[in-house]
Amino acid sequence: MCFRYASCTDKIMFVVALLASMCFGAALPGFCLLFGEMIDSVGGQGGSNSFDTLSSQALIMVYIGIGVYVFSFLQISMFSMFSENISHKIKV
Q1: Which residues, other chains included, contact 60 with Cβ-Cβ below 8 Å and sequence gap of 6+?
Q2: What mean pLDDT value characterizes the chain?
Q3: DSSP string covering 22-87, please?
Q4: CB 67 within 8 A of CB 23
Q5: Where are the domains of the chain?
Q6: Overall pTM surpassing 0.85 (yes/no)
C-alpha cells in the first residue's frame, strides 16, 4: 500500500534499510559464535598461541561492534527518511 506513493529513490532507501537491518540482526548470532570460540580457546591447552588467538578474536569482536554501529545507523536513518517521504507525499 505505501509503495504506491514511493518514488524510485524511496524504494532504494527501503531496500538499503532492509539489507542493513538484516546485517544488524545477523551480528548477534555471529558475535555469540565468536564468543563461544573464545571461551573454548581459554579452556584449551593455553600457551602463547592461546593469547594470539584471543587477541585476534577480540579484534574481530571490535570489528563486529563497529559494523553493528554502522548498520544500525543506516537502518534507522533510511527507514526514517523513507517514512517521512511517504508521509509527505500522502499528505499532498
Answers
A1: 34
A2: 88
A3: HHHHHHHHHHHHHHHHHHHHHSSS-SHHHHHHHHHHHHHHHHHHHHHHHHHHHHHHHHHHHHHHHH
A4: yes
A5: 16-91
A6: no
The distance of Cα 23 from the centroid of its chain, to the nearest Å, equals 4
**78 CB neighbour count, 10 Å cutoff:** 21
Task: Find out whether 13 and 77 touch, Cβ atoms under 8 Å.
Answer: no
> For residue 10, what are the contacts with CB-CB under 8 A and spacing of at least 6?
82, 85, 86
Q: What is the mean pLDDT of residues 87-92?
A: 86
Q: What is the pLDDT of residues 21-61, one digit of tens each?
A: 999 999 999 999 988 888 887 776 555 567 788 888 889 99
Task: State the cell numbers at 37.
Answer: 570460540
Q: Which three cell numbers stand for residue 5?
A: 506513493
